[in-house]
């Protein structure tokens, strides 16, 4: 089945590829010599520096960049990117108009070389033309559909096998029942059965009711009942004070799904303390303003930030009357437990998601882990110490390997379960 | 020698009073409340009945509390929540100015540390300095300016004061404590230019005016010299407590300890003689101490003068008294052997006596060697006579400004000042809280606390120290210098003025050519100190011509009862009376807290028929020149018979809820002559009448007893040590089937092998002067509760580190005569005692819930959230270092004196890294585990091992004499490993330093705290015994 498909898929892909090349070569025949490496380096620079304020096809803080070179000449763009303020000050009409249009948010100066800027522009150019490619890929979506159904089929197949198995088992049971009844009938027809055998046959008849009423079974049932009850009770008690799943409504409807998920803003960009201090830090309003001075200024939620930091979006001025934003704390570790983010993130190299769960999918943040001591301890038992490249651990690793070279050094092995690691 | 030596914690133990015996063999002071004796519901029944109800209620209350998280709106760039910032600044209260480093968290100062870059302090602090951070968060601070009892704005106040100053008829006085700030002095000069009638008068609570006058007469310079105790081989002090309360005690402690530090390569140490009436910290550290009457001091010094003069070819003055005292002649001969390497000091405020002290130092060649007038100190410049003049003329003055001082309380003429203030139309005070003086003035212009201020200081000539705000002002206060500048119409703020002054006058002292003043300023602010190497010093000759005249004025010894007024090492001069940490700190000598009292010799107490019990005594009526005080008596071993002592700093009436009416005010008792000269020794008209009234003094000395186990203190004399470095060591042996063995050789335990770190603390009993700075430092760092006098009387004090003070004497008899000799002049030993972090800890074994366990780094961990309060551990701890929280001391109005935990302002001082303990749990020294953890984390973040010295405990970092050394014994290059010569063994480590020992070694607890034997620079026993006669 699959053997048949491969040449057809390969042909379609090759056709799209060639079509793409023809398209590119025909429309940009004058730029034959573009090195893909330049575009790649341009893409890198673009992603690292430009995406905070620009997108290709839509207005973010700054204008959309699609076809930027059709609007302005390359030398102008180079001097603008190097120092936009200078261009504005020089009285360039286009520059001044641009500055006014985008709420007087000045584009920072980038100390790039001309070559670097050109590479970015080349990338933007290529990226501007990406749309037909996307369409082409979408057009070729049938294959994907086929593949998806293929996967679904395998699942159904598994179910089918399961059903067949159950059917066969039932069949075997029926056959066995038939054999038993046949044999019983057969015994009934024979008269030459000895007395002992007769007794044996009579004894083997099962009194189900008496069996259920026997002390053993009653005892077992009571035991199971009590055990389950106790377990449920104790489990219930252990959840007292555990706020797993706690999802309070926040004063501002901030979405991690949007910021961290969709826009892939690094956690560290807002939670500035996560690599250096005990607390990861809830971002201060001035960090929000880095972007929201221009993005979604009309949103009610963003207006709340403006109110807190006393910012007037009309004039772009900050006032003195600042009001702190009172977020509701989601993760409430008790005061008696000391937890340090930098130890876990910087030294231990853990991902935020390890404890905070699928934060990139959370529209509203909730407490993912149960944050109990058992949960902490368990992780300390299972996690390997990130000792590579850290001289602090060099000697400890050597000592550990002398004793037990098979298992990597766990947090537990260097005192990670001791009380005063967290309680003091 | 040690076999016959007897140690005792107090007279109670020496005399085996029933009160002491009652508690001596009991682990806990209180009986358990068992049974119901009076038919009412007993505590246990109550608990049984309530048990279910409480459980049900707590289940019902399991709703999620909503906690808010409030981030910065605009986060300052250099502040990261949960990361501590450190700012160099300068402690300044009263006449004391000391360079410090302030630790801040989230913008709040929470701890004061010494500035290791300052050669003026040597990097140490004192109890007052450590505690001053709590004074910042005192609710009693003034919230804003006021005029005639009404709150006003600063503009209104300025306008009123300018008009008052303009119309003032008669001289205007500016009263201050000693000022060492060059820029403040400049501001005052500017103020003077505007208001020509301004007279600036200065006084010090603990006046050294007499010495300053004598220095002026002899050396032509009215200043205190800098002393270098580290160079001295012989120090003779006549009633001058340079270790406890003198000027700049951190440096004195450091240098003194340095002169006494012993090692395999240095087997010499200084010798300290002390002649005094009240047992002071200096006397307690003396190798030879002779109790003398206060009136005898002049005669002793004059007599010493003649001996020295005779031997050095100086001018022998006839007619001077000659004292026949063995210790004095021994001191004289030691001094003559240590020319240029000795220091003679007197605490007397009598010019004539200080003239002779100067003369002795000149003849011994100490001036320019151990005593430096080129680098004179600026922190004591008060002039008694000028101040006396001021008090006389005050009632006719046009106005008076009190700049951060409180003379109504802390000057003996305070009552006269208070009376005159009623007649003056314009009076103003800048103190930052209500006190006895500013409650009488018409205008209040409250200054910032020093932690909110810009300032500069020159505590020692040519050595500068800067003060920068570690927090912006909490209340609507204004820096006093800014006030003065504004009233003088100088249109500049003090910060700019300060910078300008530095740019013009101080920057040029730097050796480096300063092209960029901003960079220089930044550097100075960062370091906190600026100590240019070159400094202009005056040439001078000693002029001893005034000596003959002074000889006439030497006091003749009297035979009446004498009163000696002194300053103690806790509350000090009383400026910080409202600081509960200082109030609850036990006095280094008497071990009493929350009080002052009349210190009396035991013999005298017996004569007066005072009934003594366990921490109870009786009141007496003390009358001096018609002034009378009813106060309790405290029998003080070492007090000279015929003298009584009383500490200043107590009996405040307007200090705040903590300090008001604690103890008795001694200032009015200080003798003032017609010229205004103060005398802290009162020789005449002192009478004491015993009363029947009982009184309780909260003394911690017999709390937490070692149950009579001996050899806690191990000591030897220097000559013994030189012969055998292990001299004085008690080496217990344990009987085994294979003969006697070291205690460590026999053990039930597996021992610990530490892979990563092995934290240890070394305490050199020879360096420890007993000042108690560590205990306040510990209290600040670890959020230790203040519990109040009543609970201290219940023996529930919470100090994690206590300084045990032991008296000892060579006489071993139990006869009354022996006891009297022992109590007359005992030797004193101080021993800091905290959790010993035993490797075989007996507390760990008995905890039923494993709340106290051993860590893989050698720490004995205490887990509060696991503790259920059985107190088995405290019971089983041989060192008695575990403390039980009998009450909830935080957020509890009953313990409102515990300022740091009972109001929002006070709570700002708490260390956020340390849990505040609640009722019913045990707590104890953790070796500052929070510092260890954070030090390790810093190292891990940078991918390296911690550097020695980077991680240290609060006690060790604050110790001015560096008696405590903390470090990793696993690191062979660490200071502690080297000093103890640590050697790893199968079941732990062993210190090869011959002086190192474990307290109660025979119990095989194997602590991680090591003590070094105390060595006294004393000759053999026979001589010492004779000295008593």
Structure description:
The complex is a heterodimer of chains A (424) and B (1029). In chain A, strand 1 (311-312) and strand 2 form a beta hairpin. In chain A, helix 2 crosses helix 7 and helix 15 (285-292) crosses helix 16 (300-309). Chain A is mainly α and 424 residues long. Chain A has helices at residues 2-27, 36-49, 68-71, 74-82, 84-89, 93-101, 114-128, 130-139, 141-189, 195-203, 208-213, 215-238, 256-262, 267-270, 285-292, 300-309, 341-347, 352-356, 373-382, 391-403, and strands spanning 311-312, 317-318, 327-328. Helices cover 58% and strands 1% of the residues of chain A. A two-stranded antiparallel sheet of chain A has the order 1-2. Chain B is α/β, with parallel strands linked by helices. In chain B, the strands form 15 sheets. A 7-stranded mixed beta sheet of chain B has the order 7-6-18-17-16-8-9, with helices on both faces. A 7-stranded mixed beta sheet of chain B has the order 30-22-27-24-26-25-31. A 4-stranded parallel beta sheet of chain B has the order 13-12-11-14. In chain B, strand 8 (172-176), helix 6 and strand 9 (198-202) form a beta-alpha-beta unit. The two termini of chain B are 19 Å apart. The relative contact order of chain B is 0.13. Residues 1022-1029 of chain B have low confidence and may be disordered. Chains A and B meet through helix 15, strand 3, helix 17 and helix 20 of A and strand 2 and helix 29 of B. Strand 3 of chain A pairs antiparallel with strand 2 (68-69) of chain B.
